[in-house]
Amino acid sequence: MKRRKFFLSMLLVVIAATASCLVTRSNGSNVGDRGTPVSVIRTPDGGLVPEVSLDKQGVLHLAYGKGSDGYYVQSRDGGKTFSSPVQLNRRAGIVAVGGERGPKIAIGKDGAIQVAWLGQRSGGIWYTRSTDGGRTFEPERNLLDTETGTDEATIAADQDGNVFVLWLDGRMPVDSRNPGSTPIFMAASRDNGATFSADQPLKYQPDKRACSCCRMEAVVGKDGYLYVGFRTGYQNIRDFYLLKGRKTENSFRLVPVSVDNWELEACPMSGPSFTIEDNGQVLFSWMSRYRVYWSISNSEAINFAPRVATPPGGEGENHPVVLANHKGEVLLVWRDGAQVNWAKYTMDGRFTGNQGTAGRLNGHSKPDAFLGTDGSFYVVL
Predict the structure, then answer these.
(1) Looking at residue 30, what is its pLDDT?
(2) Fewer CB within 10 Å, N side or C side of the chain?
(3) Reduced to 3 states, what is the DSSP secondary structure of residue 181?
(4) Number of folded domains in the chain?
(5) What stretches in the chain show pLDDT beneath 50?
(6) For 55-110, what is each residue's pLDDT tens digit?
(7) φ and ψ at 10, to 5 degrees?
(8) In whole angstroms, what is the distance from residue 380 CA to residue 374 CA?
């Protein structure tokens, strides 16, 4: 009888330990009022640079890189377990992985899983999709019309069949006003990724090109506009801007997010992250002078509030993610050295005193984050 009790006790310990490896709640290092829990999910298979999207059914879609290949998994239980990895690229070794580079994911019409990535050694802008729920992916296609240097691909999609793949493109003549900067190019699909338009540069004024190796982020809003966040390199000033334009046109308004006038004759290799709230406000996060900030726009996304900094502490902050839940809690996640930290704020920028650590990453990855169907916060490492 004692042996049976001992066996059952050990079994429960093993089960608990296994579960904690799959989804671990932030604990010991938390301070302040806890509020909504912050859970941590590890990318399966030692994957790097995770990118996540949660669909309307609560299915978590996750794309990541490993070696020079891209992979896709999904979870139907909030990240506790994942499906077997599906390789995104049929040609081996064509995915640039590391830092901010890796496969990017968006969910399109009828649940189509849309993925784009930068080719290894700037070898193309590649696209694939799954129309069977992630079981298989189509053979990848190179969306470039011409052979040229490229960087930092990203993707956005909506429920009307629009898919936008954007990247930094080196085919245009050098502009002396934009040293170390590159035009943003786009290829658009109106049929859920079956076909794409010829690629073309985004049109906006003034022509402040993007920092040549900092990631961009793109989101299609419910208001029918395409939003693109990027770091400029105009006259070596590395500030952040938001482009806003109707998704049916190539004409964008350039909106300054924060004017820091950080002059740097180099690429910091750090782009923005942003989400769009139901009322049209844009939550935007970025790094400037190696400190992480966030801000929120008005409902028209043409003016941003004064920036909000992380709690005092780090000196090498980078790769932030920001999002808010229906309770009005804002979660800011960022990397500081190898450690990933988080802190909570109110929508008006007040630090709640609640902060913690999510874990550690190696030198070639960054975190992501998402909201659960119940408004809970999840950090993906």
Answers:
(1) 61
(2) N
(3) strand
(4) 1
(5) 1-28
(6) 999 999 999 999 999 999 999 999 999 999 999 999 999 999 999 999 999 999 99
(7) -65, -35
(8) 17
